[in-house]
Design goal:
It contains 15 helices and 27 strands. With 630 residues, it is of the alpha+beta class. The radius of gyration is 27 Å and the shape is globular. Keywords: Glycosyltransferase, Transferase.
Length: 630
């Protein structure tokens, strides 16, 4: 007999908000039951969610208050585990771990005259004796700092335990952000990744800040400086997959194909060439109490690893939240590969949904909301999963925001495929306003995806090669540059004002950066030439990039003044196809966009809610006042 499902406490509110979800009530009940039971088991068997998610303080290699070293690993497929490193002359057998239950191993190394036996900065390896007898030298999954020497391919694990913390210095790293009106920064490619050209999406060490940019303390200081300037800092977290590296990654840590991942075909992402986590990874035991044998789910080490990872980034580094990468791949067994989501609700429920992965996301958001309610979580989901950004208590995923991923795709499609006179105003408005009721969206016209090599930013698509020759104010304004600058401004403003409850920009795109972004790799002869953003272009008074940058700044400052992102969704009063005009109201402002390629209008009339005089706030002649009558 199937176990009874637990209904989310506020499910009825969700169903009343969106009646089309009513046929899937049992799906929400089943999902919430999975979440509820796993949370209950963690509370009962692990001493609570708080203790469970602080496992980063006990797993890996940690120094105790008396100077001793406590080590702990989960390696269920190992026959034996040892610690080797500089501290013991790399003797692979002198420091064996003690085998515990459930695939865990521990080691205690006492202090030496009150000092740590493993000095700060010394190199380490976990030595695994695999089931076939082979000795495997591995980096701990919980390693906090890994580095790569220039003459080596693989990374080395370095014990990070500095004698004193850093001293916060004055810094101006975020002055540009303040000046341009942004109040939050999302840091990408922070979690350590051996392959630089992966843009940080092939993670090898989940608890280590990338050594390419400095030490862990350097990152902590940078975040503290940002906070001192009132800037929120989010981490781009990758829990959807992991690198296939075994020498310096999680793959085959204990010598088996699984450990943290699904085994066989299910454990490999066919497009990303990476490993896929088993979010339901349970150890099994046999309970012989009163002569009855039954299997008991008792440990959930992948959940421990991932939830503790989030907790560590919040509490040790003071990140203010996360943008979860690749959520679509997590939500479905098909990972979104070859799947076009039409919006039919049947696409979001059924056997093709990976409810174990969804349960992990619910647990992650519950943990963050419970222990750090000030933190923000964002889902990168292209499928449009309903209720993903509704509270867990309603049966939702618990995220605060979701990325409006259809918007940049729409702008690219329009610019690539349509002549200016063929732009469809209704289609643009539909894309910008098509979002789930009472779920917050982050709108953006373009992101890092368009800036990477192989793609083009909006500015480059609009102005192409002329960006290299005709951006000087000393040159005549060509039709291509004139059109490109005006459309660049209009696209960003209408996306900002109509597309969601927050706005995202990738660095450099605010001023139309003329080049793509590329990281050192074999295909470009390991060149760093395009691993840059040329912010100096905005400081040159002879270049037109300054106009785009100033507009972006004014746009953000205008929103800060009137708060349209926190206002209800806009009322669109006009989307005129032949005139190519879009008009809408939001936060007491009137937005009028003329997308016609060659027609300007005088005394153009649009309907508004409240008649009166409206100052012209964003345009070429800011002193004018428009008198609008009903």
């Amino acid at each position: 007999m199937a176990a009874a499902c637990t209904e989310p406490p506020r499910l009825q509110q969700l169903l009343e908000r969106d009646p089309y979800l009513a046929p899937f009530r049992s799906d929400f009940q089943r999902r919430y039951s999975l979440f509820y039971n796993r949370l209950k088991n963690i509370e009962e068997s692990e001493g609570g969610l708080d203790k469970f998610t602080k496992s980063y303080k006990t797993f890996g290699v940690n120094q105790l208050a008396d100077g001793g070293i406590y080590c702990k690993e989960w390696a269920p497929g190992a026959e034996a585990v040892f610690l080797a490193g500089d501290f013991n002359g790399w003797n692979p057998f002198s420091h064996p771990y003690k085998k515990l239950e459930y695939g865990k191993w521990e080691l205690f190394i006492p202090p030496e005259d009150g000092h740590s036996p493993v000095p700060h900065g010394s190199k380490l390896k976990v030595v695994i004796r695999a089931q076939n007898g082979a000795l495997l030298y591995r980096i701990s999954p919980w390693a906090r700092y890994v580095v790569r020497d220039e003459d080596k391919v693989n990374y080395d694990w370095v014990h990070w335990n500095p004698p004193q913390s850093y001293i916060l210095r004055e810094g101006s790293d975020f002055m540009y952000l303040q000046k341009t009106g942004y109040n939050c920064v999302q840091l990408m490619a922070i979690m350590e990744h051996a392959y630089y050209a992966s843009f940080g999406y092939q993670i090898t060490s989940f608890f280590a800040a990338s050594s390419r940019y400095g030490t862990p303390d350097d990152l902590k200081e940078m975040i503290d400086v940002a906070h001192s300037m009132g800037i929120t800092v989010l981490l781009d977290v990758v829990h959807s997959h992991a690198s296939k590296n075994s020498e310096d990654g999680l793959n085959q840590f204990d010598g088996t194909d699984s450990c943290f991942f699904h085994s066989g075909y299910r454990g490999n992402h066919q497009l990303w060439d990476s490993r896929l986590f088993d979010y339901a990874k349970f150890g099994m035991a046999t309970n012989c109490l009163i002569g009855i044998k039954r299997r008991i789910d008792f440990r959930w080490e992948v959940l421990r690893f991932l939830l503790s990872n989030l907790r560590m980034w919040i509490e040790d580094y003071h990140f203010d939240g996360f943008r979860f990468d690749g959520v679509t791949s997590m939500l479905y067994h098909h990972h979104g590969i070859g799947t076009g989501f039409s919006g039919d609700y049947n696409e979001y429920f059924g056997l093709h949904v990976d409810e174990d992965a969804l349960c992990y996301l619910m647990l992650a958001n519950h943990m963050i909301n419970t222990l750090h309610p000030e933190c923000i979580t964002i889902a990168e989901d292209v499928s449009g999963m309903p209720a993903l950004c509704r509270p867990v208590a309603e049966g939702g995923g618990g995220f605060d925001y979701r990325l409006a991923m259809a918007i940049p795709d729409k702008w690219i499609q329009i610019i690539k495929e349509l002549k200016d006179e063929d732009w469809n105003m209704g289609n643009i408005v539909h894309t910008l306003t098509n979002r789930r009721h009472e779920e917050k969206y982050i709108a953006y016209a373009e992101s890092h995806d368009q800036a990477l090599v192989g793609d083009k930013t909006l500015a480059f698509r609009l102005m192409d090669a002329e960006m290299y020759t005709n951006m000087s104010v000393l040159m005549p304004l060509t039709p291509v540059i004139d059109r490109g600058i005006q459309l660049h401004k209009m696209i960003r403003l209408i996306t900002h004002a109509l597309g969601g409850e927050s706005y995202l920009n990738f660095m450099g795109n605010e001023f139309g950066h003329p080049e793509w972004l590329d990281f050192p790799r074999i295909g470009n002869n390991e060149s760093y030439h395009y691993a840059r953003r040329q912010f100096n272009l905005t400081e040159d008074d002879l270049l037109r990039y300054k106009f785009l940058n100033a507009f972006d700044r004014d746009m953000n400052k205008l929103e800060e003044r009137f708060g349209w992102l926190a206002s209800p969704q806009a009322y669109v009063s006009e989307k005129h196809e032949s005139n190519k005009v879009i008009a809408f109201e939001r936060a007491g402002l009137i937005f009028i966009f003329n997308f016609h390629p060659y027609q300007s209008y005088v005394d153009y009339r649009v309907g508004i809610e409240t008649p009166g005089k409206y100052p012209f706030l964003c345009g070429s002649v800011c002193e004018e006042v428009l008198e609008i009558e009903s």
